[in-house]
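Exercise 7. Given the components listed, write out the predicted structure of the assembled complex. Treat all entries as one system.
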Amino acid sequence: MSIKMPIPDQAILNRRDEIIAALQKIVPGEGVISSEKEMKPYESDGLNAYRQPPMVVVLPETTEQVSQVLRYCHANGIKVVPRGSGTSLSGGALPLADAVLLGLGKFKRIREIDFENRVVVTEPGVTNLAITQAVEHAGFYYAPDPSSQIACSIGGNIAENSGGVHCLKYGMTTNNVLGCEIVLITGEILRIGGKAPEHSGYDLMGIITGSEGLLGVVTEVTVRILQKPETARAVMVGFNDVEAAGECVARIIGAGIIPGGMEMMDKPAIHAAEAFVHAGYPLDVEALLIVELDGPKVEVDELILRVEAIARTCGQATCQISNSEEERLLFWAGRKAAFPAVGRISPDYICMDGTIPRGKLPQALLRIRELSEKYGLGVANVFHAGDGNLHPLILFDANKPGEMERAEAFGADILRTCVELGGVLTGEHGVGVEKRDLMPEMFTDIDLAQQQRLKCAFDTDGLLNPGKVFPTLHRCAELGRVHVHRGQLAFPDIPRF
Amino acid sequence: MMQVRDAADVEQAVRDALAARQSLEIVGHGTKRQVGHAMATNAVLDLSQLNAIVSYEPGELILTAQAGAPLCDVLSLIDSKNQSFAFEPMDTSALLGTPAGQGTIAGMIAAGFAGPRRIKAGAARDHLLGAVAVSGFGDLFKTGGKVVKNVTGYDLCKLLAGSWGTLAVMTEVTLKVLPKPEDEITLALGGLDSEVAGHAMTAALGSPYDVSAAAHVPKSALTGALAEIGHGDSVTLVRLEGIAQSVAHRAGTLETLLAPFGRATRLAADASAAAWVLVRDVIPFAADGPRGDWPVWRIVCPPASGGKLGAALARESGAEVIYDWGGGLIWAALPPALDAAAALRLRAIVSAADGHATLIRGSDALRSAVDVFHPQPEGVAALSRRVKNSFDPQHILNRGRMAREALP
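Answer.
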């Protein structure tokens, strides 16, 4: 592991047996896992370059058990790392050696489907896709669709504010969640929001969403569901240069069209995907744009014509329109399989996740190409073009000494480039441990201090998921009285990881 | 009264206030000063000169403006590129009796009142992408970004929206803009009672026809153009937006779906737009209208129970009500003769329906006698206080506006 985490507390580690016994009392039966072998699957999440066995894993089944576990940990000064399905791509659920790993995998029940209010009330361990499956018989679905939707849990989606291909039109998790039951580190159980479109007072649901497991443990979620669009069709346009593809995206948006999805791939990604799924992608183009229109058939048919006309004005090299559901899914098959496809052409890869202003795409890709040469590592780019969210896949071989470190340095430079171009470090994967130390590229100490003060309002002792998101740990008492001037904290000597 | 011209001025003003233990009332154009409790402040921080539109990039769907930028200027600028704020911000001037055409962009965000399209497009909190603000520590901080998709760090924008200036003084905001719908049609049903209208709206919103607004105005609350639409009887309005072919197609299918509730009349684009402004701005309860001296409450509840809740409020307290958001938003005006006890009864009925009620317009006496913002369960209230203190521990900013407090 090449990332520094908070130093394990030896006093806590010395008490491991006692802690396990106490947790077993709260969660009897098979709810506590403490053997090295059985804890193995919990050592990492979707960012599997980083691994760390937890001190102990606990899998409660009820809110009351979660509350008791947290109350015990709080009273004993024990750190807690919450985990859903463990699909985070930023290391949000990476364990700590001296922390309890709190898994929500047993919270697997959908509690209520309310079609009249168009909401589903569910436990957090239910997968994203299972919510859609539970309501699709009535024509409904849950809109945010991260590509891990078959495995990722809705609780994890709340923690990460997950996006997906369709979030340009339908929003991210935060735009589709109405309420939750949350347990604070003290064990206190709170209900925030509910079935009403907004809740009273400060928008606590809005701050809990995307807080990466640092504020509390969500034990129930209320999400909005939508009626599925009547139909969807896709246009697939090839371009001989990336600039033309970028211009096409701008003109589609400029024409007032917000597609259901708008995805771009560069040449290496096109080739990898085509070799893997044989979607019929053109191989001699530099960029491929997939634009999906959804809605009533008359609307989709008209918008397809408009998008096709716009593509012609942008110097398209190829253009195909899906004429059946099979064809539409085939267009998507390559894009959706882009990550495993790249996995076939390279022993290892890391997937980056920055956002840039759409208009800066050609500049960003040029810079990534230069960095690729500098670091001597290949890169394939897939891109949520509609909302400027870039996913460069950096290719490397972890068995070759130094390559992983080079890939990480390459990735960090890409994210710095995103910030330089007016963008941000992460569009949908979260900060976690992966981008933690890059936070100062985007935020000053003062900006981060304000975020950490908010953390203190939820978790005074900093016991929930420490070492994630923030590059520096501060004690709340200091943050509460710090006088910050000219961008410098009064405690410049505090250790960074 | 302190006028500020840049973010550094704001920072200095808050630091000075901290040093002097002087709380500040944060004001843009002052159009919503009467909302909330009387503030325990005696100094005003005036942001109206911090009023530049910093940048507008239609292709990026992004606008950045200083806090005091006049909302009407911003709206006409983005309208010139056929774009809008999708959440249809409410203009409170008619309801609150303030001059028309006033209001700043940060004031709109601080209040967070979304219009009819909230059911489809969300509220200000869903469209605020980034902000620069001065906390009650006297620190200028930034949150969010200038791109439409971003999960870097806590989303403090969500807290700033709807916080009524009690957490931080926004100095600059970045908002998402979206293309305006090309066309719209509203279907109007006449003569439904509130509960049946609730069922009609629920049916429309549960359909695949992408309804972008659904409202009901009972007969007794009708005014002006709304009265004409209903020919003197109650009106239930359901709006469809998009490209013309699509809107026409969906209007046809939705008429069929709603046939059990009566025969709908169609309002074409101009008439439709005009009707929704009346709903959005709560014109039936306008300050210069027949109910101008009635206290007005804004009630948010699970939408499917709105019809029943509104009917109960009318029955129990003689309230006049109008419904938006398919029943999820109820504007209730109470007869002015009723006292604070009536307000508490209203709140009890709303709480029992899992809703919450905020007093938006009321006399000074009423505002000092009741909680303007809906009281929260103790645990949530305590967390909210800790959140407030994490931004403004000395309660320098809009002291007492949301939760009553005395002068220090």
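Discussion: The first strand of chain B starts at residue 2 and ends at 3. Chain B touches chain A through 86 residues (CB under 8 Å).
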